[in-house]
Amino acid sequence: MLAYAARRLAVSVALVWVVASLVFLVIHLIPGDPAELLLSQGGIAPDPAAVEELRERLGLNQPLWTQYVAYMGGLLKGDFGLSLQDEHPIADEIALRLPRTLELVGMAGAISVAFGVPLGMVAALRAGGPLDRALSAWASFALSVPVFVVGTLAILVLAQELRLVSAGGYVPFARDPVRHVALLLVPAGTIAFGLGAVVFRVMRSSVLEVLEREHVRAAQARGVSPAAIIRRHVVRNALTPVVTVVALHLGTLLGGTVLVEFVFNWPGLSGYLVRAVEARDYPEVMGIVLVISSLFVLLNFVVDMLYAVIDPRVRHG
Amino acid sequence: MGPSASRRAVLAGAAASAMLPFLRVPGARAATPGMLTFGLSSFPPSIQPWANTGTAAATVKLMIYRGLTSYAPDGSLRGELADSWDRVGATGWEFRLRDARFQNGEKVTSADVKWTIEQIAGERSTAYFRAEMQGVERVETPDDRTVRIIMKNPVATLPVWMASYHLPIISRNSPRGSFVGAGPFMLKAQERGVSLELEPFSGFHRAGLPKLKGIRAVAYADENLRVAALRSGDVDLIEYVPWQAMDAIAADQSLKLDTVDGAFMFLVFNGSRPPFNDARVRRAVAHAIKRDELVRAAFFGRGSPLMQLPIAESSPFYNPEYREGWKYDPDLSKRLLAEAGHANGLSCSLLSTAQYGMHKDTAEVVQQHLAAVGIRAELNLPDWATRVAIGNRGQYEMAVMGTAADSNDPDGIANFVDGSLAPSYVRSYGLKIDRITELLAAGRAEFDQAKRRDIYRQMEGVAIEQAPMVGLTWRSQGYAMRRQVTGFRNLPGALTFYSGLTFETTDVA
Fold first, then answer.
1. CA dihedral angle for residue A31, residue A32, residue A34, residue A40, rounded to 10 degrees
2. What angle is formed at CA B293 by the lines to CA B292 and CA B294, rounded to 5 degrees?
3. DSSP state, B151?
4. What is the annotated signal peptide range for this record (chain B) (predicted)?
5. What residues have CB less than 8 Å from B107, skipping those under 6 apart?
6. Alpha-carbon distance B91 to A125, whole Å?
7. In chain A, at which end, N or C, are there fewer CB atoms within 10 A of the end residue's CB?
8. Fold held by B3-64+181-261+477-508
């Protein structure tokens, strides 16, 4: 088991290095000069000497390989570097924003499971009935509506027309816990609108599949009450694929909440990444992508370890 | 199967969902008397006083810093840290400072002005006015309240430069890495990328100002969310009102809309190679565009046609004889193309950006109008950073641009028509028209207003014939606010981005 874990760990570290190197190359290959951009905002021409001066100060006039070695050296020391825009430490900014995105994604996952699982079960238990058809139609609708449409409608109705919630924004939990949660619920609910439909569909088909299994039929034949069958034999078995699907989606959402963060002015990691790309802030882009990809790699590593624990054939394969 | 468990789950889920809308957000409303919540269009990348880091940063800089001169709400030049100024000799200006203080409590002195100019002109400076301040021969400080700026050449526009939000006076005793200004508000706290908190500076040199107890500037990058935040009461005032929302805001009894035609859209060309190195082809483009349609399609009717150089009608330098200098005339356009050897039309690329709707929409409308006279333009719509890089390198044939002039003085448009300046995405590439450069230099060195007017009239005449840029539309630049906000004013013409000056007189009930 130790040898297997060591092999997987080595592969994970190599993957992170490959990702870091690819991101470094790609961001430097696309057109756009951060020094030029920083000094030419507002559509006004910057002094070329000032641009050159800034390039020198930021180290952008160095050969690419020199910048690469310096960047990798910094990473080995756990240093993500400073933002090209205002020399703010990137690690501090990521440490500030990552929990916000995790919180948004986590809350969205919780809401999705909270209504997707029970509704999926109800639909499966009444498969073919009017409730099932209505819920399935809703799921199709929810899956087909883009997240920014849901978000914009939520703002229009809840904030502009009914004036029940803020149109977006963020307040730290420590400053005002109630408002923090209230501001979190609408964007999380927006993500959950589509994600909940996915959970609903997986749960429904999973329950239908479990209901057909022999051990359920045997329990029914033994005269076990329907409620007990659902509780003991159906729910647990049906939840396994739901957990897998939710975990996969949440992983994708780590870097994919851009639209929701934008629409609701939620200052998380995705929006930070988009702004960093727009400004060609190379160290910021590399730092954020590295953190997101490392989380993915870590998630994969944990899953690999879990598979090995559950099924010993994996570690010998 | 028994449905009991399912029913409970459905009921619980329904009850939870029904509760969501009733979670009223405490403190979500902006209505706190004296405290203004301002919806910025983006978070300033930096508020370094002398760098150009965009208009959102400029607005914040106007809260914190002040220059020797500035603008009154009607757009006229007024004294700020200087209360008067006069010419000295052939190339100098003398400014007499008022009794003003920096936010660290120290007096604003002539030594601070000298130090500021030295920092801007310095070897390692990245200041926007670096080149201009390198034109300073020396700065004399005969006493604490008098400063003489002697230029290498006569510069009639120096007092206008001194009003720029990129040229504030900073205390020479500022701690290293920070900048102490003399504006009406002090930066109290900020969360990077999210918001800035400002508090009033009690030692501000205008008695009784500022009126506000504080400003919270929150960045709303999404223009629709910015409007939603205003309409839901989250913010008191927003900048960069999107054109599509202006009618609804104007009709809302609880809100006020303040717009001016200050910024403008235009076309630039690659003059280093055919076909746009030929003035006839550039003029053919100028006469092919139906600007009324452009204003309707790209700016929802919120703007006006621009058929000459972008000098505002309210300016004493406005030339009514060129009002229709580049008017829509497809027959003339085709004739000019034929004269230039393109009787069967031509194909070219049209650079713009998909990142900003106004740039993209303008490019799409222009493309259609050009097609009608036989110019087949293929759109290139990269992101803004790429568009800037391509523009600076001249890797395009024709491009859409949008911005505002540096000031309401005609010298403020030199950036867009003077091909002798270094290559830049804001002006045509490789298109140097000597006569325009000469006239701009003459206008800058001339102190007699009547003679200046004549020089710029000649310059516009040359520009209409040579088309170093082609004006398309003025576009409305708007601020919107709750009725309870008073004292805030959108400054006229090119000064719209200086409206942040009026935060000193702004109040909110």
1. 170
2. 90
3. E
4. 1-30
5. B99, B100, B101, B144
6. 90
7. C
8. D-Maltodextrin-Binding Protein; domain 2 (3.40.190)
Question: Alpha-carbon distance A168 to B17, whole Å?
Answer: 19
pLDDT digits (tens, 9 = 90+) for A204-216: 999 999 988 888 8
Indicate whether A309 pLDDT > 50: yes
- Give the pLDDT of residue B444: 92
Which of B126, B130, B421, B475 is the best substitution to test chain A (most A C-beta atoms within 10 A)? Answer: B126
Q: What type of residue is B220?
A: Y
pLDDT at B27: 42
Q: Could you say which of 3.10.105.10, 1.10.287.630, 3.40.50.11030, 3.40.50.2300 is the CATH number of the domain covering B262-475? A: 3.10.105.10
Query: What CA–CA distance (Å, rounded) separates A304 from A69?
Result: 32
pLDDT at A38: 75
Query: For residues B255 and B258, what is the distance between their CA atoms, to the nearest angstrom?
Result: 10
The list of chain B residues with pLDDT below 70 reads: 1-31
Report the alpha-carbon angle A238-A240-A246, nearest 5. Answer: 110
Is there a contact between A118 and B6 if contact means CB atoms under 8 Å apart?
yes
Q: Which residues contact A203 (CB under 8 A, 6 or more apart)?
A: A116, A117, A119, A120, A121, A124, A238, A239, A242
In degrees, rounded to 5, the angle at the alpha carbon of residue B409 between the alpha carbons of residues B407 and B414 is: 80
Which of 3.90.76.10, 3.30.420.40, 3.90.550.10, 3.40.50.970 is the CATH number of B69-161? Answer: 3.90.76.10
Are the beta carbons of B480 and B39 closer than 8 angstroms? Answer: no
Task: Output A88 or B136, whichever has higher pLDDT.
Answer: B136
Per-residue model confidence (pLDDT) at position B374: 97
Minimal Cα–Cα distance from B438 to chain A, Å?
A: 20
pLDDT (mean) for A29-43: 73
Contact A30 B386 (CB under 8 A): yes
CATH 3.40.190.10-classified regions of chain B: 3-64+181-261+477-508
Assigned token pair, A41: 């905002």
Which residue of chain B comes nearest to A125, CA vs CA?
A: B1
Residue whose tokens read 């051990």: A215
Optimal mutation site among A27, A38, A47, A280, interface B, most CBs of chain B within 10 A: A47
Where in chain B do CATH 3.10.105.10 domains reside? 262-475
pLDDT of residue A44: 58
Query: In which residue are the tokens 């005032």 written?
Result: B237
Helix axes B279-286, B449-466, angle to 10 degrees: 100
* Alpha carbon separation from B502 to A17, B40, B234, B491 (Å, rounded): 52, 15, 21, 9
Least trusted range by pLDDT, from A53-62, A121-130, B140-149:
A53-62
Assigned token pair, A230: 């659902």
Q: Are A36 and B389 an interchain contact pair (Cβ–Cβ within 8 Å)?
A: yes
B85 compared with A284, residue with greater pLDDT: B85
- A125 and B219 within 8 Å at the Cβ level: the answer is no
pLDDT of residue B2: 39
Rounded to a whole number of angstroms, the distance from the CA of B144 to the nearest CA of chain A is: 31
Residues with Cβ within 8 Å of A141's Cβ and at least 6 positions away in sequence, in order, are none
Q: How far is residue B447's CA from residue B449's CA, in Å, rounded to a whole number?
A: 6
Torsions phi, psi of B400, nearest 5? -95, 135
Which ranges in chain B are annotated with CATH 3.90.76.10?
69-161
- The token duo for A307 is 């598979």
